[in-house]
Write a structure and sequence with these properties.
The chain is of the alpha/beta class. The chain is 50% helix and 14% strand. Helix 1 packs across helix 9 and helix 3 crosses helix 5.
Length: 335
């Protein structure tokens, strides 16, 4: 009898373990895994409240970006993936902005507004497909944990290709914003002069918990499932870093942008990022767009967004060019 009971108990425990294992895998596939079909598929424009009134403008921006000639660029990631980007050149030797799109987004959709601002004000742009998106390699997205290392790879590529005399701004929307913020404490090339983060979240844990809470799931359980699935199947620790800790160590000024009608990444996260940077003495500016839905602050107020970004980037870039030229003149004088 004892053996029968023990056998039943072991079978029950194994059944539970199998259910948990496959449950974790299902969560991993749903949240972090992008199939090749999904990667190469069309990413539609967002719809619903806050977006419908901007449909025509969004489509015009995307269509414009599709028409502009670009150079295809590929680099190797730290873990040997091929990363893909589009280089849009306005003028040889012009300052450069490297732009990163959001979670399961598309580069020419998410960055269309910011790219237009940069191009029309004389900046070259490098618009990248994040890992597990578009034409970049991999199938696992990691909420910025590995993507921040990809950001470093792109920054080093830009420094090598365009030279240290070319100032670089890192910019991103949503997960792209979290990516550039989480890269802020890495050893970026000295010609990276600033960061623009539009509606970024504070950490992978914070955004996963927030989404779980918004959908009325137990947020602690949701986070455990996503975090554990990521470790088991994606080989990544989502708790290993976050934008809050990284922004405190930024050596460059940061511009934070957020719409106060954002239903995906709450505006309080940018406020928390601002407070963390300010407490650490990092030059930081926070601009909130009234009525702005997730990722479309640009369309909420085009003139203000344009002026804001140009004021932030042009000053930093001009100062870097002037200082870099001065250093070179000084070096030549010593020879």
């Amino acid at each position: 009898m004892f053996r029968i009971i023990a056998g039943i108990l072991v079978a029950f425990i194994l059944s539970i373990a199998v259910l948990i294992y496959f449950g974790l895998y299902a969560v991993f596939r749903a949240v972090l895994y992008n199939t090749n079909e999904r990667k190469s598929g069309h990413v539609p424009l967002p719809t619903g409240e806050g977006y419908d009134q901007h449909q025509e403008s969004m489509q015009e921006l995307v269509d414009l970006m599709k028409e502009i000639p670009y150079e295809e660029v590929r680099v190797r990631s730290f873990d040997n993936l091929t990363l893909y980007g589009r280089y849009y050149e306005v003028k040889k030797g012009a300052p450069l902005q490297i732009q990163f799109h959001g979670y399961r987004g598309e580069a020419i959709r998410d960055m269309a507004g910011g790219n237009r601002v940069a191009r029309e004000h004389g900046q070259n742009t490098l618009v990248v497909d994040q890992r597990a998106h578009g034409k970049s390699g991999g199938n696992v997205t990691t909420f910025g944990v590995k993507e921040r290392q990809d950001c470093l790879t792109w920054a080093r590529y830009a420094a090598k290709r365009f030279g240290m005399q070319t100032p670089v701004i890192l910019s991103g929307v949503s997960m792209g914003a979290a990516t550039v913020l989480m890269a802020a404490d890495l050893k970026l090339p000295d010609n990276v002069v600033g960061i623009i983060a539009d509606c970024g979240y504070t950490s992978p844990e914070a955004i996963v918990r927030d989404v779980g809470r918004a959908r009325r799931y137990p947020e602690g359980a949701v986070w455990w499932l996503v975090k554990t699935g990521a470790k088991l199947f994606g080989h990544v620790d989502l708790a290993s870093c976050g934008a809050i800790s990284s922004i405190r160590k930024s050596r460059v000024p940061v511009l934070l942008i957020h719409g106060d009608a954002d239903r995906y990444v709450p505006v309080r996260m940018s406020r928390e990022l601002y407070e963390a940077a300010e407490e650490a003495g990092v030059p930081v500016r926070l601009e909130i767009f009234r009525g702005g839905a997730h990722g479309i602050s640009y369309l909420t107020d085009v003139p203000r967004y344009t002026d804001l970004e140009m004021e932030f980037t042009s000053g930093l870039m001009k100062r870097y060019i002037r200082e870099y030229s001065g250093e070179k003149e000084s070096e030549r004088g010593k020879i």
